[in-house]
Design brief:
mainly alpha; 2 domains; 0% strand
Length: 291
Amino acid sequence: MGIGEIIVIIIVGIVIYAVFSMRKKSSAQTTDQKSGTGNSTGEQNAGYRKSGGRGHYGKWIGGGLGWVFGGPIGVILGLALGSMFDGMSNGKNAYRGTPRGDFAMSLLILSAAVMKADKKIVRSELDFVRSFFINQFGEEEGARLILMLREILKQDINVQEVSIQVGQYMDYPARLQLLHFLFGIAASDNQYHPEEVEMIETIAGFIGISSSDFTSVKAMFVKSTGWAYDVLEITSSASNDEVKKAYREMAKKHHPDKVGNLGEDIKKAATEKFQKINAAYEEIKKQRGIN
């Protein structure tokens, strides 16, 4: 079952709960009006909403349904959607649709894990994620995803369980693109954060990224003396022919068409990674005088 279907089921459950609650409330008000106590009951109901009596049930219902239908990822998304529903009952954070795609959902949760790794969330990270979602999914969809991210950031995330689930249901090229995005968050403030890089390495291991591919993507962001060789997954002792062969293999592995099934928006984002591979190859050619 895909994440999109899971979210639909969660929302249906929340809607059913909301409808039942509203009908129950309406019935109670009608009964009170008939008995001449309508004003008193109205005041009591208002106080009940202000105290959060019903307003805090949504996230637990969402989390429960999410666990049943979507494992650890479903729990996090369910709690986020449920919290947004609770906000709706108070007239704020209204949610009027569902985000699309397993890739976007995985991005949300693992992005939150990386952002929280160094125990602080900085504006540059939020701006990076916001800009990405809006550019890739549009204003309306991006706004929905950011609302969910804000709720997810409030939760404790079991990185191991979530990452393993991502590794089970997402193909390898998409996982590589996910890794590239997470490094983009870590580098958004132009600083090296060991805790964030360590978190990304942990995620990479659990989602099944090879150590050589992790080193390659890391080198695109965390530059070292031999960064270009790391990007192509070779050593500086490689022959010119081996350099050319490594470039062809990396270009094939990371070609944007590999994530074409995720839609044109993600494919465009993958082009950035492809360009960094080209840049690494050009750097080595320049150093060696290769034409």
